[in-house]
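FAQ
Q: What does a multi-component entry look like?
A: The components come first, one per line:
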Amino acid sequence: MRNSTLKVYNSLTRNKETFKPINEGYIGMYVCGPTVYNDVHLGNCRTFVSFDIIYRYLLYSGYKVRYVRNITDVGHLLDDGEDRILKGARLEQLEPMEIVQKYTNGFHKMMTIFNTKKPSIEPRATGHIIEQIEMVQDIIDNGYGYEKNGSVYFDTVKFANEGKGYGKLSGRVIEDLLSETRDNLKNQSEKNHPSDFAIWMKAAPEHIMKWNSPWSVGFPGWHLECSAMSTKYLGKTFDIHGGGNDLKFPHHENEIAQNMGACSCQPANYWLHTNMLLMNGRKMSKSDGNTISPEELFTGDSPHVTKGFSPMAVKFFFLQSHYSSPNDLTNDALIAAEKGYKRLMQAYKTLTGLTTAGNGNSLDAEFNDMMETAFNDMDDDFNTPKALSRLFELVTKINSLKEGHIDINQLSAEALENLKKHFSAFLFDIFGLLDEQEAGGGNSQALNGLMDLIIDIRKSARENKDWTTADKIRDKLKELSIEVKDGKEKTGWIIN
RNA sequence: GGUCGCGUGGCCGAGCGGCUAGGCAGAGGUCUGCAAAACCUUGUACGGCGGUUCGAAUCCGCCCGCGACCUCCA
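Then the predicted structure of the entire assembly, as tokens:
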């Protein structure tokens, strides 16, 4: 366990706070997962990659983490009131559960492509109808819910008037909400007040996904599933709740209200919100064409990019910005990220090949400090861009060691091992990057042997000043996307 | 209109009262058969206008621009 202080920005208090888990050494973390009615959006990928890195860093720091990320498969309605899942089913002429399965599979595949760790528990809303019905009953019993024609609504006015803090997370002021009453009186509504929200909805006869309940045959409100499932798996109050900042209101605000209404307890001590992914400075929007899917990004099949970018290049691009800042996706930025990613991975390979006679240790402190600083950056609200900048300072040092500009023998064997260990931990354990050259190479055993042979032949040619042969080998390899790099000592190669 | 947040060099993006962020691109150099890679050196900055302060990209006010959200039934 790293004995350092972790600080996180808490959306609830709008302050960076020292993180203290409820139970020392253990962390409960809930993140709102996707509604599986469509292919996963690139912006969602950024959010889940961000929380994956948070999860990984907490694990690396020595915590036992229970990471719960749900699958929303019912209740998330569209503006027109249609259930997103049912709309998907209607459009594709599939069973609702086929839609759910299809897009859950797609989501999982994408999470694997981005090399994220699986959550500890991935509960589905439809698998927790009973828990949700029980929670609705608790809310009614405590006086915060009322039934109208088979639907049940949460009484936000009563909740707010008791000073329970409705609107605290999102900055909404209940007085403002109350003042809107007059404008809304003309609307036909079962709700006592416009800011009230449904926690159970009576289903229309033709509605497919519906369950029996004390109030009607119906289905749970969208916000309820997260309250019910986080309570079930993490307890009434747990440590971290995460999600995209577009969920702050109403979803997270209502979640807090539901938990408070059901058991008078705050669901989470720390609320973490990721910011939006933009493209070319504007929000991604299907309606005006300013959007790109992960697949299009990988293949380059989009007018917004000049070429395809590998998943790890994209992930590296995400890492270069803080999770709570907006991130602007542009072709130029992706090209820059791709090159940066390759340089980082190449430096790691260089590092693994370094050895030291270890007869000095004057560099030990400097290298250890640089590595330590990177960890401190992660402790400061998971500042991946800052940590990355530290890693790149080390990249320069590593290359200087290789080139002999810095005397590696001034680094003790222990310090070098330490550097290798921690650099690797950062790249693979914490950031969850993959070496795509290795992964893509597949049968790297044979490939490496083959390349050794080819480079040896070229070396002989060069020694004989047979530049024609040497350049032919180099050019042919380049056509195969293999780049030869002549170093001082020996010749290396990478697959581009 | 309301709530929350953002505007940093050619591009992306950290920093958030005094100290070089970093990546990519650019310039000069080292190395090299040539090239690439690598290494060294280096320029360019904090939307605008005021204010607070010994000192502001960093705090405050106003303005301009941008983003998210503003709750099924609406």
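Q: Is there any commentary attached?
A: Sometimes. For this entry: Confidence is low (pLDDT under 50) at residues 180-188 of chain A.
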